[in-house]
Amino acid sequence: MWKGAFVLYLLLTVVKIVWANADVFTPQNCSLDCLRQGDPQCKYCRITPGDVRKALGSTALKTLGSCIPWPCFELVGNEDPNICRHYIHAPNNVTVETVEDPDPSSDSVVVSWIPSPYGIAFLRGFQVSLQALGGSSVYCQLFLFHSNLSLPASHAQKVYKSDPFRGLPLDSQYAITVMALPVPEQWDRFYHSTTFCTRSCAEKNGLDKCKRDWYPQHISIEQNGTTAAVTFNLAPESLDIRTYFSICYINGIKKQANKVDITPNLSTNKTHHTFKLQDLQEGTNYTCEIAADEIDAVRKTFTIQVKEPDSALSTSPVALLLPLALALAAIIIVIVAAFSLTKAKMKLLKLPIVPDFDMKEHQESKSQEEVISWPKTRTSAPKLLICYSSSEGPAHIKAVMKLGSFIQQHMATQVCLDLWDSLSVAQEGSLAWHSRHIQDCDFVLVVCSPGLSHRLGTSEFKENPEEEEESSWETANSCAEAAIGLIGAEVGRAKARGQDLSKYMAAIFEYSEETDIPTELSLVSHYILTTDLPLLFSHLHGVPLHRPGGYLKISHISEEGFTKLPAGVALQSAICEAAEVMKARRMVQQ
User: Fold this and answer.
1) Same structural domain, 173 and 230
2) How many helices (H) and strands (E) does the chain have?
3) Per-residue pLDDT tens over the stretch 15-64
4) Are 180 and 220 in the same domain?
5) CA of 424: how far to CAs of 104, 159, 487, in Å?
6) How many degrees, rounded to 5, is the angle at CA 295 between CA 290 and CA 297?
7) Tens digit of each residue's pLDDT (9 = 90 or more) over 87-137
8) Quick check: bond before 182 cis, omega within 30?
9) What domain range is 82 assigned to?
10) What CATH number has the domain bearing residue 216?
């Protein structure tokens, strides 16, 4: 009985594997004649540069480069002129899988996807392109069906795979685009793009086989006064690392750094080495790093705290008598002070009381407030949508972009900006994109400018009817301004219902005026940037800057501290450039 059940289980397993494999299509070698004649055996065929050279000629191939566009008529034939005009939706579920690559310095990947059910009957194939982020090289693979094939909608559950993309450098970022063919005349949603990163050397080969990724994992420290003996594990012999270095910073200040070059004697010990850090300063905290002496090597951090030595007075007879003498002196001072105070009060009873307020003493007491730390109560960063007007030109747009970069990098906030999501804006439309993010984001910040207030104020009335004809960038700008109009409407509704208005904020750069803030946003919080960066931080995270006896200080967003950061310098520079442009424009208008 159990033998029959076991045999049945094996049969079902085999059937399941065969069925799963039947739902996955991998490329096959076919001839162009096979595709054109509609041979059923040519279901899913790879098209090589040689095939394109044969169909289009070597001159066309040289012009097209390594990425082959969809040569619909030339490769399949022009018997049916309508074959390249049908609308095909973009593929779905695009994934990237790593496959075996014998080269330890590179990775290989295979891309898989499923076709969309929309327009699948007119689907003729796919084109897969790979491009390194920040690079110009593009690698393409072209796959076609035979001319007589018409796929049913149920085929949208089948998985298609590309050929392997081989020789990709490790720890590199790439963009993969899968395009449904033929490319329609209506250029919308016919491709799907995603990004991925190849494995690091440590992920593929293991930490002990990568020079740049290796770092000491075991460090022990023994202190003796101002000398510290540091012991760490050495790299494997296969990495051929002979020298190391260590850098120590005093109280975290990198300008006060001490570097020590380390060359272990491998004949004595091949697994561990000990070196000494001498002449350390008493009462000082050191932050130290140790790494292999290789380019871009990973560094291991450790700390050393050197304590103050015990004073010699602590064990002498004088040290024992000193606290008693101090206590006796304190008692005498208190008695004398009490007697003097009583005598002074008796005199004050006979004199008129004149109020006096020492402002200097008040300021000194205020300066003694306690600096409190930022309580990070949120589990995730708040989302902030930044809206603006492009009427001021590229300089103002650059300042907005640098502001978004600074907020995202140094104010623990996720920024949504249409400049960073141009593909989604093109697909959805500017107004729809802004409307969706107004609802999804925790906060909305409108960067106001003279052009914004002017265009919003004149959008309902135009003296010249010819002004209604706008260029493409003006149309996009009007969409952004329409989104700001939506924000004004949301603010009005929230105010009428007695709801909280803290979601919405208005800001101006230092070259604008408060009168540039539209009337629709007069009810929300206003900020002048970059002066009010601490106030903006307080608004985004809901933390008070002051409390009784203490104040919140975050140095990198203070008025004088943010310019010490690269992003802060870029923001300040962009604001200055925009201010010069605005000044020149006003002089021309005058």
Assistant:
1) no
2) 15, 26
3) 344 344 458 888 988 887 787 777 888 888 888 877 777 766 555 444 44
4) no
5) 37, 26, 20
6) 40
7) 678 898 999 999 888 888 889 999 999 998 888 888 888 889 888 876 666
8) yes
9) 27-199
10) 2.60.40.10
